[in-house]
Amino acid sequence: MQWERLIRISRPRFWMYMFGPFLIGWIAGIVHQTWGDIFAGFAIYRSVPMFLLLLTAVDYFLFSANLFVYGVNDIADGDTDKHNIKKQGYEDALQENQKSRLSRKIWLFNGIEWGLLLVLLIYVQRYVYMDAQRRWWGLALVLFWLSAYYYSSKPIRAKSKPFIDGIFNILYILPSVVWWIVAGNSIVWFSRVAFVAARLWAMAMHAYSAIPDIQPDREAGLTTTAVLLGKRGTLIYCGLLWALAAYLWYTVVWVPLLLMWWVYLAMIIASFSSDVMSLYRRFPRINAGVGFVLFWVVLM
């Protein structure tokens, strides 16, 4: 299987869903640790171990983690992909004879980079920070891997369980938690309100993304949140989650994040009378725009 195919399977249009939280957690961690002196926060990466750790993390959360998440999903979703219009041009549907080869490559890429990331993190924990509280990044990293794998795979296959499917999308938040700690912060300093807001945003993002899958999931016998609530109910559910997330972000960050709710509200209103698939194609750009605003709010 060629590199071009692997890159397509990793969904480049969705890379920012994983890489964005990593960047926000890292920058927020530096700003918090150095009381706003961003240049002092970057200074520690002049050391070879920290620089290698950053390079490995950038590569992992930009490509390898996405290949793992979406590759495992493609392998496990043979029962629904044959009915799914998203797999007819917008995304690729894997043939049965491709799955075993893809599975080996996914485990190879993810195993090597995840292992290297873990070794570098352990080294930094022991010889750079020497602080027991930093060990929380290990739990967050393991939880990321477990939620990414068991979202799609048996015996849990969380994607087939209403509301549990959204909870498992914590995998998109955990890179920010890991790098908040790696930047030199204690887990007890991490804003619980901001974390809950991010969780609600991820749950809404997942539910909205599942609306185009309602029919193929129903034909395959899967009861997702979107299948259970239906299109209209899911849109209302997403609207409530995004509204609460926007309010929580507003209380701990800045007013523009409350205003971003109107972007999602407009999309939801349009979705009631439009084909969700046509709007879903614009969804990555909308989320990237919101993430870009959040990044600069944190940086400032």
Give the tags:
single chain, 300 residues, mainly alpha, 16 helices
Word description of this protein:
The protein has 300 residues and is an all-alpha fold. It has 2 domains: 1-190, no CATH class; 208-300. It is built from 16 helices and no strands. It starts with a helix and ends with a helix.
Topology:
Blueprint: H1 3-9, H2 15-33, H3 38-43, H4 48-76, H5 78-81, H6 96-129, H7 136-152, H8 164-167, H9 174-182, H10 192-210, H11 214-219, H12 225-252, H13 256-259, H14 261-273, H15 276-280, H16 283-299
Helix pairs in contact: 2-4, 2-9, 2-16, 4-6, 4-7, 7-9, 10-12, 12-14
What portion of the residues fall into strands of 2 or more residues? under 5%
Query: Any idea how many domains?
Result: 2
The computed structural class is mainly alpha
Distance between the termini: 44 Å
**How many distinct helices?**
16
Q: Give a count of the beta strands, DSSP E runs of length 2 or more.
A: 0
Low-pLDDT regions: none
User: What is the chains' assembly state?
Assistant: single chain
The value of Rg in angstroms is 19 Å
Give the integer mean of the pLDDT values: 81
Q: What is the chain-wise order of helices and strands?
A: HHHHHHHHHHHHHHHH
> Could you give a short account of the major beta sheet?
none
Shape: globular
Helix content: over 70%
